[in-house]
Amino acid sequence: MTSKTTDDRGPLYLLRFLFPGAAPLFAAPQRLLLMFHRRLLLQRSLRTTTGTGTLLHRPLAALLPLLPSRVPGRANYMASSTARSPVAATGSGSGGRNSAPPPPSSPLPSATSTSKISSRRTAQIARHFSTSSSPTGPVSKQKPDMASNYTVRKVAAPNTLEHRVYIEKDGQPVSPFHDIPLYANQEQTILNMVVEIPRWTNAKLEISKEELLNPIKQDIKKGKLRYVRNCFPHKGYLWNYGAFPQTWEDPNTVHPETKAKGDNDPLDVCEIGELVGYPGQIKQVKVLGVMALLDEEETDWKVIVIDVNDPLASKLNDVEDVERHLPGLLRATNEWFRIYKIPDGKPENQFAFTGECKNKDYALDVVRECAEAWERLVTGKTPAGGVSTTNVTVQHSPSRVSPDQLPPLPAHEELPAEKIDASIDKWFFISGASA
C-alpha cells in the first residue's frame, strides 16, 4: 500500500522539484498529470518484449536520481522502477520472458551530467517564475547594473573655479554627455540620469558642454561662481537635479508647441525620490511627466522622474500618481522655477501650457526628440557650435577617439569644500509665492 501511494505521487513531486517556481502552473493540469501517470502504470503491467513501456518509463527513471532524499517516496519509487525495468530484468544476457538484447547506449546523459544540466535549468526557471517581467509590474524590482560600473574623479575642492567632477566607467574616463547610454534597459522604460546638483544644495553645477569629456563643474557668471537663492519656503533645489545623457535641446529648432528654440543643453531632469544624490551619480529612473519652462525665450524642458530604487517607485507611474502620493510637489516645482531668478534681479520665468505638467507619454516623446537631436549633433549632421562632442564609445561619431588618445586627467582628490559667503544661506520672500 505504501509503495503504491508514493508511486502514484512520484511524477508530481518530480515536476515540482524540477520546476519549483512554477508550482501555480501545475495546479490546473494536475488531473492530466495523474492520467498520464496511470497510463504509465498500465503500460508497466502490460510490458512486452517490444519494450513499449520503456518509452515512457526510462526518461522518468533517468531523472529520478536527481530527487533529494527528502522527497517522499523516492526510495520506493526507484526500487520499484529498477525492479520493473526490462533492462534490469534481463540481467547481463540470461534467458527469460523479456530476454531481448540490451538496447544500444542510451543517448540520455549520465546522472552526474544530467544533474549539472538540470541544476542550471532549474535555477533559470526559478528565476523566470520568481521575477516579474511584466512592464506593469513594480519597476523597482528590476535591477539594472549600469550604475555599478561608474565612479567619479574629483579635481580640486568644491566651491572653487577649478573644481571638476569627471565620470569614469571601469576606471576609464567617459563623457556624461555622450558616452553614458540614455536607456538602462532594452525596453527603454528605465533611463540613466546624471546627477549634477543634490537636493537642498545651492551650488549651480552642470555638465560642461565646452570642455573635453564634459566634466561637471560649477556655472560661472561674470567671473563668479553661481548659486541659486533660497526662495521661502524652499532651501536650494527641491529635488536631485541633473540631466539625461545622449540628449540635447537643439537651439536651431523651434518647438511647434512652445514656439521657442531649445536651450543648447542636455535635457534637464528633476528626480523626486527620497534619497539625496551626489554630483556625478548615475541613477536609474523612470519618467513620470514634463514641464515646459520658457527661460529667457528658450524652451527648457524639466522632466519629472523617480529613482527606480525609491520606496515609492512602484506606485508612481504617471504624473497623476505624483499628485496622489506627493501632494503639493508639482505645484512647488512650478513655483520654484517661476521665481528662483527673481532674487538676482531677473524677471519671473514663464511656462508653456499655462504651467501644466504633461503626462508620461508626452514626456517620453520629448525625450525621444532630444535624443534624436543629440544623434544629429554627435554625428556631425548639426553644427556643434562650440559644444565638445569628443567621446570614446559612439561608433558612428566622427568625434570618437580611443582612450589612449585622451590627455591624462588630474589625480582624484577628496578635498573639503571651500566656505561660501554667508549671504548664500539668506532666505528671500517673494511676493506672490505660496507659503
UniProtKB/TrEMBL annotation:
Main location as per UniProt: cytoplasm
EC class (word): hydrolase
Domain of life: Eukaryota
Region annotation (Disordered) ranges: 77-149, 386-407
Required cofactor names: Mg(2+)
Classification via InterPro entries: Pyrophosphatase (IPR008162), Pyrophosphatase_sf (IPR036649)
Enzyme Commission number(s): 3.6.1.1
A GO CC term attached to the entry: cytoplasm
Catalytic activity as recorded in UniProt: diphosphate + H2O = 2 phosphate + H(+)
Record field: transmembrane: 12-34
Pfam families hit by this protein: Pyrophosphatase
One GO BP: phosphate-containing compound metabolic process
Molecular function GO terms recorded: inorganic diphosphate phosphatase activity; magnesium ion binding
CDD domains xrefs: pyrophosphatase (cd00412)
Subcellular location: Cytoplasm
Biased composition (Polar residues): 129-139, 387-402
Keyword annotations of the record: Cytoplasm, Hydrolase, Magnesium, Membrane, Metal-binding, Transmembrane, Transmembrane helix
Record-linked PANTHER family: INORGANIC PYROPHOSPHATASE
Protein family according to the UniProt entry: Belongs to the PPase family.
Protein's UniProt name: Inorganic pyrophosphatase
Protein source organism: Fusarium sporotrichioides
